[in-house]
Prior knowledge:
By secondary structure, this protein is of the alpha/beta class. Helices cover 40% and strands 17% of the residues.
Amino acid sequence: MKFIKYAKYVGDPFGELSAEDLLKLLEDFFLDSGFSSSDYDFDEMASERTLEQLHQALLEALRDRGMISDETLAQMLENAEDYQNSRLREAIDRLIERLAEEGYVTMEPPVRAGEAERAGPGQARLPEGPVRFEVTDKALDFLGYKTLKDLLGSLGKSSFGRHDTREMATGVESSGSTRRYEFGDTMNLDVNATLLAAIRRAGRTMPLELHYDDLQVRQCEYQSSCATVLMLDCSHSMILYGEDRFTPAKKVALALTHLIRTQYPGDSLHMVLFHDSAEEIPFQELARVKVGPYYTNTREGLRLAERILARQKKDMRQIIMITDGKPSALTLEDGRIYKNAFGLDPLVVSETLHEVARCRRHGILINTFMLASDYGLVNFVQKVTEICRGKAYFTTPYTLGQYLLMDYLQKKIKWIH
């Protein structure tokens, strides 16, 4: 006789979570700056995250959200073997698979030395060690959108727009008056004004002949373009003193990138890390960047930013510098790096200010966002602001994004004229 055994249906406890919800839960893990690392792993760019670390981070995020009790988590940690075969393990693995299926993470097993060469076209690679994962551009784009939305929401009623000026030009948006067409103008033709000009010249005769001088075009507000270099300080002080300052800076960079790409397509944004030296990083590497045991070579960062902006043919060029420490390093003429972390070194400060003056002569504005309030640093930043005629914001990691976005959205009208 055939028997059918029935069991109680147990649904997926996390079935209501979408991939976007998971990204929000894992935001701090994906954008980790090294602050939470107990051993301070300073491998800035080469650090690799494993699938097991992602699993553990998601487990802790669900516990913080209250979807997993502390008692359940404690039991799982005590009985690791039972957890490996539990339904909870399978449920979290399905969540990670959902992230991969929707293109937010990619997983790649490492290959044993020599196996890649010996494997044939149809043979599978043999993995060795833990499976690695990488955050995709799609995930970074979503995190940038989320951060931008949160920041603009805290600002109240903020509307996106392009950098408006008092100048007028012909374009697609008809927000200005009508004038006679000139060679080179966009053919944004004002039909009514053109016909009226022809009637005034020739009268109401049929057929109506149009002459070149009859053409009238609508004007729109001239919209300028801006080239921006965002300088991020990744020296050791950005995670010292019990506060993580680098993760908020990374989030602001993501938000600013999303803002420029979606609302200001004519603008450009480049990111520069400055520490013992300086380097430009692509947007895709931002999530992996961590602080290190570095000093602060502000002058080298300004030099690199200046070279980047020299290639940009934009109406406005600016440097946004986010830092919390004094300049404490200097690249000498022979390539050696001079370091002094004790006080404001006169040589380092003077050479840094000379580079600020050089940026000013080349028409580059420098806006400084200082995440510290030390008296000596305040005087230094005020001197930088005085030389380059930029702005200085003494802010905190919690208000950094609000200040920076408000500055980017509002200041264009004030200093382009």
